[in-house]
Structure formats: structure tokens, C-alpha cells
């Protein structure tokens, strides 16, 4: 079968790969749509992300939807033809974190699309039943594929413990920041402000998401020390940093009220960055982080199927599977406005 395969930095191709055997508790899925994430384009541009390095040809993609082709003998609640979304994190189910329910922190996690585990930008994949989520028959393949980034937003808003009536600041008007804003609104936040340096993304967000305020922020002082957020409203309840910009977490926390809450959602480019211990200590701020998600898919499916959260407009550029190498190149070059979606099969 065909797969979007990365052979090295700036070297992607459509290559043939083998089908996997079907186990008794498995589901074989025909992939319909795969969204490209920032991690995919980072691998394309650099051949690595942190400790994860390409060591040979690697299939990308972890935001996917499809249709059930066949099931193993122990799977009784899915049948061929069912529409599904794929949860790409395959947890062990045995370690302390899995047994505690926080399987996103599994000690033996196999996350599809992260080397050495082949991703989902291929025609077919075999998955354990727990990684396959049935979606309503009327849900499009594009919407089902976008349940994965929406799950990140659902988990982030949960980690921030956003309550009805609260005031929320979000840094980053890209796909994740946009989804976090929409989930916060669905959670009945009274005020949601999204800050970014990109006026085009802010304009797009303001037009597409009623109820969101936007704020243009600077990149901080010339020496990179901040603060680019000084004109943003203050005394806010919580702040979710979704941009990955090096000073954004520290800058945004200045807008929090005493005992406000901050969540690091975006992945910073550098493994270390500076924070003001004085600010955190004097205001007794709470800072936490997000690593993927756990148990979010039912909520994500509910938000999309009920039209509480719009996702379709995140897709700005569409490609066929054979155009996957071009999609990666254009996304890495900044030529994709928001999100690229690759059509693998029937949608």
C-alpha cells in the first residue's frame, strides 16, 4: 500500500509499505483523511524533534479518520463500513500511569507518527480496538480527523480548570489556540482573549469565532526579554500558552490575577526558557502543562456532532496522498495558512 514516507530532512516521497497482520482484538481501518500537524512539518524540516530522530524511512501523520475494513474475532462492537477516528497514542495498559487513568503519561507509550512508530498517512492501518473511536454516520471524514487536535484543546481547557464566568487569555491563533478558544467558550467562559503577533490569523479568528476578543502582541524587547503583552487586559483568571514562543509564557502570566492559573500547551522551540519566579511567587500563580490527552474523545465527538465547536474552517489547504511531499514542503515553508489536510481515500 502507499504511504507518505519521510526519508530525511526535506526528503519525502510516496512509498510502498506492507499491510500489518490483524490480531483478534484489532481493527483494520481504511484511512480517509490525515491532517498535518506542526510536528510533521518539524520532522520534515529538521529530521528530529527533541529526542525523537529519524533513523530510517518513516511514515508520518497522527490526525486521521477512516472506515472499518475488517475486525478481529474478539471485536464485536464495530463492523465493516463504520466511520471512525483514530486515537494515535497506543498505551500499554499495565504501568502505574495507565492504571491511574493518565495513560497519556504511559511509560511505554507508542505514539503513531513519532519514530520509530509508523504514522497514519497511509492507505490502511491495523489498530487495537481501544484506539478506534466510532463517530456518528453523518460526521465527515475531515471532522473526524480533526478530533485529534480538538482532543488536545479539550485536555488543555480541562487542565486549566476553566469555569463558567471566568476570563481566559490564550496565546497563539493557530489551529490549537483556535480550538482552545472555542472549547473555552463551550465551557461558558465569560471572556476569551486570543493574542498573537500575526494579524492575518487574528482577523481569521475574529471572523470565524463570535465571542472571542483578539489582541495583537509584540515579540517583547529587542533583547528577547519581553514584555509584549503589556497592552493586553489584566486580572484574568487563566492563561493557556499555545504558541511556543520563547517569552510568551512569562509575558502572558503578567496578565493573571493573584492565584490565577497558567497552562503550557505549546511546545517551546528550546528545551529551557526563563520564568519570573517573583511573579509566580508573589501572586501564588499555579503553572501546569499539557502532554497530549486522555479520555477526551467522547467529549470531542460530542462537541463536534452537536456543533458546539466548529472545526471545518481550520483546514485551509487540501492535498491528495500523492501530493503529500508537496504538502509537507509548503507547510514547512509557511505557505499553509492554517492546516493542511491530505485525502487518502474516500471521505
UniProtKB/TrEMBL annotation:
Domain Alcohol dehydrogenase-like C-terminal intervals: 175-305
Domain Alcohol dehydrogenase-like N-terminal: 23-136
Gene Ontology molecular functions: oxidoreductase activity; zinc ion binding
SUPFAM superfamilies recorded: GroES-like (SSF50129), NAD(P)-binding Rossmann-fold domains (SSF51735)
InterPro entries: ADH-like_C, ADH-like_N, ADH_Zn_CS, GroES-like_sf, NAD(P)-bd_dom_sf
Keywords: Metal-binding, Oxidoreductase, Zinc
Cofactor: Zn(2+)
Family: Belongs to the zinc-containing alcohol dehydrogenase family.
PANTHER family: SORBITOL DEHYDROGENASE (PTHR43161:SF9)
Record's protein name: L-iditol 2-dehydrogenase
Lineage: Bacteria, Bacillati, Actinomycetota, Actinomycetes, Kitasatosporales
Amino acid at each position: 500500500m502507499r504511504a507518505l514516507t519521510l526519508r530525511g530532512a526535506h526528503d519525502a516521497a510516496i512509498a510502498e509499505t506492507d499491510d500489518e497482520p490483524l490480531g483478534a482484538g484489532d481493527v483494520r481501518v481504511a484511512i480517509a483523511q490525515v491532517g498535518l500537524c506542526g510536528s510533521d512539518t518539524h520532522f520534515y524540516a529538521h529530521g528530529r524533534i527533541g529526542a525523537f530522530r529519524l533513523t530510517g524511512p518513516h511514515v508520518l501523520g497522527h490526525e486521521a479518520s477512516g472506515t472499518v475494513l475488517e475486525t478481529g474475532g474478539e471485536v464485536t462492537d464495530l463492523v465493516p463500513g463504520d466511520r471512525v477516528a483514530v486515537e494515535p497514542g497506543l498505551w500499554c495498559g499495565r504501568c502505574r500511569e495507565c492504571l491511574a487513568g493518565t495513560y497519556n503519561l504511559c511509560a511505554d507509550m507508542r505514539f503513531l507518527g513519532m519514530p520509530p512508530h509508523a504514522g497514519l498517512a497511509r492507505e490502511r492501518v491495523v489498530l487495537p480496538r481501544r484506539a478506534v473511536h466510532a463517530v456518528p454516520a453523518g460526521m465527515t471524514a475531515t471532522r473526524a480527523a480533526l478530533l485529534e487536535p480538538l482532543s488536545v484543546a479539550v485536555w488543555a481547557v480541562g487542565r486549566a480548570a476553566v469555569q463558567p464566568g471566568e476570563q481566559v487569555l490564550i496565546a497563539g491563533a493557530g489551529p490549537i489556540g483556535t480550538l482552545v478558544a472555542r472549547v473555552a467558550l463551550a465551557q461558558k467562559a465569560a471572556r476569551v482573549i486570543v493574542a498573537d503577533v500575526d494579524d492575518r490569523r487574528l482577523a481569521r479568528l475574529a471572523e470565524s469565532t463570535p465571542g472571542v476578543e483578539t489582541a495583537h502582541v509584540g515579540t517583547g524587547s529587542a533583547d528577547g526579554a519581553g514584555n509584549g503583552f503589556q497592552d493586553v487586559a489584566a486580572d484574568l483568571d487563566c492563561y493557556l500558552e499555545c504558541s511556543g514562543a520563547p517569552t510568551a509564557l512569562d509575558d502572558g502570566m503578567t496578565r493573571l490575577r493573584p492565584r490565577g492559573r497558567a497552562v503550557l500547551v505549546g511546545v517551546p522551540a528550546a528545551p529551557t526558557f526563563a520564568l519570573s519566579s517573583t511573579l509566580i511567587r508573589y501572586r501564588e500563580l499555579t503553572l501546569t502543562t499539557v502532554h497530549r490527552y486522555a479520555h477526551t474523545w467522547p467529549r470531542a465527538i460530542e462537541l463536534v456532532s452537536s456543533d458546539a465547536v466548529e472545526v471545518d474552517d481550520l483546514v485551509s489547504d487540501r492535498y491528495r496522498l500523492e501530493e503529500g511531499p508537496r504538502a509537507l514542503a509548503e507547510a514547512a515553508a509557511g505557505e499553509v495558512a492554517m492546516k493542511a489536510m491530505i485525502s487518502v481515500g474516500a471521505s
